[in-house]
Amino acid sequence: MAETIKNFINGKWVDAKSGDTFETRMPAKWNEVLAVVAKSDKEDVDEAVKAAKKAFKKWKKVPVAKRGELLGKVGDIMVERKEELAQLMAKEMGKIISESRGDVQEGIDTAYYAFGEGRRFFGKTSPSELPNKINMTFLRPIGVAGMICPWNFPVAIPTWKMFPALLSGNTLVIKPASDTPLMVAKLFDIMIEAGIPDGVINLVNGPGSAVGNAILENPDIGVISFTGSSEVGKHIASVAGQSLKKVSLELGGKNAQIVMDDADIDLAVDGALFGAFGTAGQRCTATSRIIIHEAVHDEFVEKLKNRAEKMKIGMPWNEDTDLGPVINESALKKIHSYTEIGKKEGATLITGGEQYKEGECAGGWFYRPTIFTNVKPFSRLEQEEIFGPVLSIIKVKSFDEAIEVINDVQYGLSSCIYTKNINNAMHAVEDIDSGITYINGPTIGAECHMPFGGVKSTGNGHREGGWTVYEIYTEQKTVYIDYSGKLQKAQIDTSIEK
C-alpha cells in the first residue's frame, strides 16, 4: 500500500494548503505507486519560512557543541536504520542496493563529521598593528536556509546541506526532488526522534516551478543551496541575486578519465566501469568520457566492451544486480536521444544503445550500458551532459593532447588519470581544469570530509563537504578589542613608543 507523505512545518506533518497531491513511483516497476505526496505552492513555503524564522531566534543561541550532539544522535539512529533506508532507496530511486547502502553511509558520515565540527567551530586571532589591542573572528549563522535537492543521492545530498546548516545555527526549509520525496521524509523522522526542536527543520514537497521559485523569492531566506543542472543553476543565481541572497550551486559535469600508455589497463577498465555505469551513470561526477592514448586504445576498448556486456541488469534490490534503472521515462528518452545523436555524428556504437526490456525489467526504465568509440572532440556526444550510462571514447596521441581534450568542455567537476608516471600525474593535478582529480581511481568516490565542487559551469565557487561547507552557511564576524584605555587610530598611530 502506498505511503502518504505530507509537509513538515513547525513541528507538525501537514497537508498542502491546496489539498493537491502527486504520486511517486518505482523506476524499476513503474506501475507500482510508492507514495502519495503533498503538492505544495508558495503559500506552504511562506508558512514554513515563517516557522523557521521564528525558531532561528532560539536555535542560534543553542551552543554549537550541543547542536553537534543532536546531529551525532541523528547519525546513531541512521546507523540503526541503515538497511531500511537503503532498501527503500533502491525502490524509490532505483540505485542498486550496494550503492544505496553507500549513499546512506555517506549521510551517516556527514552527521558524525558535523558532530565533530561542533568542537572545532574555530575563529581566528590575529596580532593587531597597535599595542594593547587584539583582533579576532568568529562564525555567525545566516538565518533561514533554503535547500533544493536532486533525486540521485536522496540521502547523501540532503544531509550535505542540512547538517552543516543546522550545526552552524541556521534553521531550514528544504524541497526534496519530486522523484524521491520518501527518503527526505524518513530523514525528518530521524531528526525529529533525535530531538531537533520544532520549527528548526521544515519540509515542503512540490514542483520546482512552484516550491523552488517560492524559496528563491522569499525575502526571509538568507542563503540558498542547490544541486542540479547548470541551466537551472543559472536561473537560481539570477533570481536570488535580485535580493542579494548567498547562493551555493553544485551543477553539471562532463567528467573524463585519461588512460595513458603506461597505465594498468585492467585497473583502468575497473575504474571506467564503475565511473560510467555506477548509479546507471546518474551522478554529476559520472565518467562520461574516456580520453585514451592510441597505444593502448584497442586493448582497453576490447576489455571494457566485454566487461560491460557481462553486467547484470535487474531489480536494484537484488544483491547480484550490477545496473539498475534510470529514474523515469523522460530520463530514458533523453539518454536514448544522445545515442541517436552519436550515430548521426559518426561515432561508432560498439555496445548498448537501447532500452533493456527483458523479463521483469520490461516494466521499468532500464538502459543497456552504452559505449561509443571514434568520438570527436567538440561533438555534442563529447561535450554535453547526458546523465545516463553512455560512455564516449576519444583517442589521443600524447599527454598534452589528453589535457587539451579534457579541458575543452564547459564543465569542470571531476577528473582522473591512470598512469604510472609520477610526472604526468602531477602535471595532471596542476593542469586539469576541475575541482576534483583522482590519480589511478575513477571520477566517482568523493569522501564527506573533503571539499566537493567544481569550476566553470559546474558551480559558483562554493564547496560542499568537509570544512569548506561551513563557509556557505556562516558569516565571518570580525572583532577588535582595544584595552589600551586611550583612543588609537589604525593606519594612523604607526610610531613605536621608546
Would you kindly provide a written description of the structure presented here, covering whatever features stand out?
The chain is of the alpha/beta class. It contains 15 helices and 24 strands. It folds into two domains: 3-251 and 459-478, Aldehyde Dehydrogenase, Chain A, domain 1, CATH 3.40.605; 255-439, Aldehyde Dehydrogenase, Chain A, domain 2 (3-Layer(aba) Sandwich), CATH 3.40.309. A seven-stranded mixed sheet has the order 15-18-19-14-13-21-22, with helices on both faces. Strands 10-9-8-11-12 form a five-stranded parallel sheet, with helices on both faces. It is globular. Helix 2 (64-80) crosses helix 6 and helix 9 crosses helix 10.
Task: Give the topology, please.
Elements (H helix, E strand, L loop, with lengths): L2 E3 L1 E3 L2 E3 L6 E5 L7 E6 L3 H18 L4 H17 L1 H11 L4 H21 L7 E3 L5 E9 L2 E5 L7 H12 L3 E5 L5 H14 L6 E3 L4 H10 L3 E7 L2 H12 L4 E5 L4 E5 L5 H13 L9 E7 L3 H13 L19 H16 L3 E4 L3 E2 L9 E2 L2 E4 L6 H4 L6 E7 L2 H9 L3 E2 L1 E5 L3 H10 L4 E4 L15 E2 L12 H4 L1 E9 L16
Parallel strand pairs: 1-5, 8-9, 8-11, 9-10, 11-12, 13-14, 13-21, 14-19, 18-19, 21-22
Antiparallel strand pairs: 2-3, 4-5, 6-7, 7-24, 15-18, 16-17, 20-23
Helix pairs in contact: 1-7, 2-4, 2-6, 3-4, 4-5, 9-10
